[in-house]
Every structure is written in structure tokens, then in C-alpha cells.
Amino acid sequence: MADGRSQIRRRAGVRLWLSAGWLVALALAALLAPWIAPKDPLAQDLFLGRLPPFWAQGSEPGYYLGTDSLGRDVLSRILHGSRIALVVALVAGTLTCVIGATLGLLAGFLRGWVDVTISRLIDIWMAFPPVLFSILLIAVLGPGLMSIIIAIVVIDWTRFARVVRAEAMTQGAMDYVASAQVAGRSRLSTMVTEILPNVLPTIVVLLTLEMGISVIVEAILSFVNLSLSTDDPTWGGMIAEGRTAIHQSWWVLVFPLITLFLTVLSFSQLGEGLKDRFDPVLR
């Protein structure tokens, strides 16, 4: 049993460090993009359109991952696009977590009419198809970074609320909660000091997963031209452009797609690694 737990912890450690390493490198690249990007991501030169990556025949110095059909540097656009992706992930994920987890904690611990009201609200909210709901919100609010963040928060808070509610109900039935209330603690104090710390590992996992989902949602909306303007460097916009010219310039599609895949996978694995590392049962 001890060997099994140690193997789980080792795998969790490797998974945690690999995913965290990629996300830290991506965050540094996003912060330093104006200085480390080799070219202006918006600069166009039709004479340099569809240049291949640096290792292929016909490449040009300074265009390490090639150019798109308008002669814009692919690497520079990926670096600047990471800024948009990470801002959406951090802001939308955090706001969704705070709203959903708070409502779920209140519903799961207080029970009664609070639980009934929040649960019915969750059921009604989840009846709407999320993709269509997000497109409708963007159409009403108008394209833009803030509109994307609002759409993600409005749609995804139910994910946190449902899971945290179930966890809070389970923890609320434990003996330590009854002991705290017998000792004279208020319900609010018990919820914050007793229930919340035990639900926190689950919240952290959901938060990292939500950040990955936020990156995907932003990419999808960019793909269908409902995010920022078509000139702004976004991963989804690059994928949409590369899809139409996959046979002439495959690199325009492949490199942002790989970056998107690794980022979403890293967010997911980071959450699982943190859960395994701080799980009280494994400890």
C-alpha cells in the first residue's frame, strides 16, 4: 500500500512539474512578448507570404516558424496570442471560481431554502446549450476581450457550484463539523474555517480545469471571428486561417494548434497533480 501511494506521488510530481514548467514558460513568453518576439505580429509583407519554418528550404532569416499568407511572422503572433489566452484564462477562471464556489458552498452547507433556490437556478442555467449561449452573449455584448470573459463566467459558474455543493454536503455531515457547532462556533465561521479548507483541493482542481476550458472557449470564438478583431493575434484566428491553407502552409495551422493543445493539457494536468500532491488521504 505504501509503495502504491509513493508511486502515485512520484507520478503526480512529474506531472505537476512538467505542466507547471510549460505554463510558467508560457507566462514568461506572454509577459516578454513585446521584447522577445522577433517581428511585429501585425506587420504584413506580401512578398514574404507563406515562408516555411527555418529548417525548410526557402525560409528567410528571422522567421523561425515561417509566415502566413499575409507575410506575418507565425512565432510573433503565437507569442502575442498567448497574452490574450492567459488573460482570459486567469480572469475568467478566477471569477467563475469565486462565484460558483461561493454559491455551491452556501447551498451545500446551509441547506434549506438556500440550497433549493441555488439548485433550481443551476438546473435552469444548465438547460441552455453552452456553445449557443456563449455565441448569443457575444452577439448581444459585441466582440471583445471583456465580452468573452463575461460569457465564460455567466456560462461556467454552474460547474463549480454543483461540485462544491456536493463536497460541502459531504463534509457537513462529518463529526468535526458537529463538534465545531457544539463548541459554539457560528455557521459562517464553521463554513469558512472547517468546510472550506477541506473543499479547497477540489476547488483548485476545478479552477485549473476551468482555465483550460477558458482558453478553448476563447480559441473557438476566435475561430468563428467572434473574439477580437481578425487582425489581432489569437490562436483560434491563426488556426482558422491555417485551416484554409493547410496544403500550402501547414505551419500556420500546426504550431498554434500544438501550443493550444499543450496549454490546455498543462492546465488539466496541473490540477490533477496538485490534487494528488495535497490530497489528505495520500498524505
- In this structure, how is the largest beta sheet organized? none
Strand percent estimate: under 5%
| Low-pLDDT ranges | none
Q: Write the CATH fold name.
A: MetI-like fold
Shape: elongated
The gyration radius over C-alpha positions equals: 23 Å
Write a structural description.
With 283 residues, the protein is an all-alpha fold. It has a single domain (34-269), classed as MetI-like fold (Orthogonal Bundle). It contains 10 helices and no strands. It is elongated. 40% of the residues are buried.
Write a compact overview of the structure shown:
Helix content is 74%, strand content 0%.
Key structural traits:
MetI-like fold; mainly alpha; single chain
Lay out the secondary structure:
Layout: H1 2-31, H2 33-36, H3 74-110, H4 112-126, H5 130-141, H6 145-172, H7 175-182, H8 187-223, H9 235-244, H10 251-278
